[in-house]
Amino acid sequence: MSVKHCEHHGDKKKKLIKKILVGLAIFIGIALLVFLITWAILQPKKPKFILQDATIYNFNVSAPILLSSNFQVTINARNPNSKIGIYYDKLNAFATYHSQQITYFTEIQPVYQGHKDLNIWSPFVYGTNVPVAPYNGAALSQDQSNGAISLVIKINGRVRWKVGSFISGRYHLHVTCPAYIPFGNKNSGIAGVVTGVKYQLAQKCSVSV
After folding, report:
1. b or e along 82-106 (b: 16 or more beta carbons within 10 Å of the residue's beta carbon)?
2. What whole-number distance in Å separates Cα of residue 63 and Cα of residue 42?
3. Which of 58, 49, 89 lies closest to 201, judged by CA?
4. How far apart, in whole angstroms, are the C-alpha atoms of residue 77 and residue 87?
5. Could you tell me whether strands 111-113 and 197-204 are parallel, antiparallel, or unpaired per DSSP bridges?
6. Are 102 and 66 in contact (CB under 8 A)?
7. Coil, helix or strand for 11?
8. Cβ atoms within 10 Å, residue 138
9. DSSP state of 78
10. Angle, CA of 151, 157 and 163, to the nearest 5°
11. Closest CA to 111 of 157, 49, 165, 72
12. Which SS3 state, helix, strand or coil, does residue 113 take?
């Protein structure tokens, strides 16, 4: 086989590989364009969350400014989209007080949420002897004495969107639910925390994706 013939064969192979790569790039570009157009037409909406209720099982501030608490909260999550599903891949619920985290992370199991579907979660958020900033410790003790506390129940995680057979990459999800929880006070003749009582909140949560 001559050198000229080998060079000609090599050129044909390079041209074939180039055509394949160009064709693949065109296919990916068309697929991406179709997805973006579909995405724009469908106008995906963020999931909606509602903090339905909260049950207190423990709430105690002890020296030196340590907090032990145990709540069970009920959270409704609704997918408002009629043609887009949502994968909740990783969710953690926890409570904060004056921007300080006061409970551990509680994991919510991954789940797929279909079109217009509603999911209800009832995680326990709790912490044992969690150190609290001195200024928050004084405020917590005062709130406990007054018989009500303003907490924020948060859910952080990641979600993916499903349009037809296409599944997007992961997006960060941040859910913030204000919770004003009464639990008896000295004026009502009930001192401290009344445990095991479910308080109806029906509080809308803010959601960012």
Report:
1. eebbbbbeebebbbebeeeebbbeb
2. 55
3. 49
4. 12
5. unpaired
6. no
7. helix
8. 13
9. E
10. 130
11. 157
12. strand
Strand partners, 80: none
E strand segments, the chain: 48-62, 66-78, 85-97, 100-101, 106-108, 111-113, 118-121, 124-131, 148-163, 166-167, 171-182, 197-204, 206-208
Query: What pLDDT tens digit does each residue of the chain (209 aa) get?
Result: 555 555 555 667 777 788 888 888 888 888 777 767 666 655 779 999 999 999 989 888 887 788 999 999 999 999 999 989 999 998 999 999 999 999 999 999 999 999 999 999 999 999 999 999 888 888 887 887 788 889 999 999 999 999 888 888 899 999 999 999 887 555 544 445 667 788 899 999 999 99
At 108, list the tokens.
């919510």
For residues 37 and 39, what is the distance between their CA atoms, to the nearest angstrom? Answer: 5
Instruction: Break the chain down into helix, strand, coil percent, rounded to 5.
Output: 25, 50, 25
Q: pTM of the full predicted structure?
A: 0.77
